[in-house]
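thought: fold this chain, then report.
action: predict
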Amino acid sequence: MQHTIKALDNIIQLVGNTPLVKLNKIVEGFQGDFYAKVEALNPGHSSKDRIALHIIEEAERKGLLSKGDTIIETTSGNTGFSIAMVSIIKGYECILAVSSKSSPDKIDMLRAMGAKVYVCPAHVSADDPRSYYQVAKRLHEETKGSIYINQYFNELNTEAHYKSTGPEIWEQTAGQITHLVACSGTGGTISGTARYLKEMNPKIRIIGVDAYGSVLKKYHETGEFDTNEIYPYRIEGLGKNLIPSATDFEVIDEFIKVSDEESAHTARDISKTEGIFAGYTCGAVMQAIKQLNSTGAFPKSSKVVAIFPDHGSRYMSKIYSDSWMEAQGFLNNSKVEETPKVQVVR
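observation:
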């Protein structure tokens, strides 16, 4: 009798259904139970696989894409990687406008996946012709047979997480989740997930994580887009210098800001305490939880889910590089020996 080979047809069939992992050492002494939704275990190593696949398949369904067409997107790196991966499987060209703030690791990964990459200056206004938003729009206008994903202003970004991440978390926690803590960049992940969870239980508290230098927290609290809030910061894929329509501010209860330095150290702490090789935004969301815990925000009965968006391998030349950390002023005397030194045997 011949046995059936148990194999997937292609890599994108692995998108979604990421595990929920209980956090232990890094939350020692905290009130409540804490869990990480480990999105690095998507095949493209981030939560952005979900939106890339959903948006592209919706475009196919609507007849907007044919084999050999070109997909164009604005990205800090993760969405670009996911789009490049899906494009390979489905037979599309891929052009990406990337922020210069993106790590060299991310840019090299995009090129390795066959994408054509345009690196654009990070610290210019969104309407500057050099910004990655405007460059992507121009490339779309110039490229025949192309679509522009435009994740910041694409409702399908939010819908992807409403249909996948939200239901997964609800099922994995058996409906016991009391808090969701997630970073907000485009806002698709937190908004779609929150929209589903709030429908299931309106009492679930949704906490967005923002960066110092970003406008999101103040806009949520006041409705004001304050350009005085904008200044350069180092965390990738978190915060914004514009207001993305993919963000549903009504389903988010509050925002908390975290610093570049503390988020970087906390990412390294996650890796060393939980064995989860955490990306920069994972450090940001965990740092937010630490800050919230210090204010007594979590009762003992809390079941807190943190979305860990991506993998530490994308930041080897940044937060996992002692020389980069030192150049940013992030390694003071007490932190210099944080990473074990390599011993060379001669």
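thought: worth noting. Residues 315 and 321 are 8 Å apart (CA to CA).
final: tokens above.
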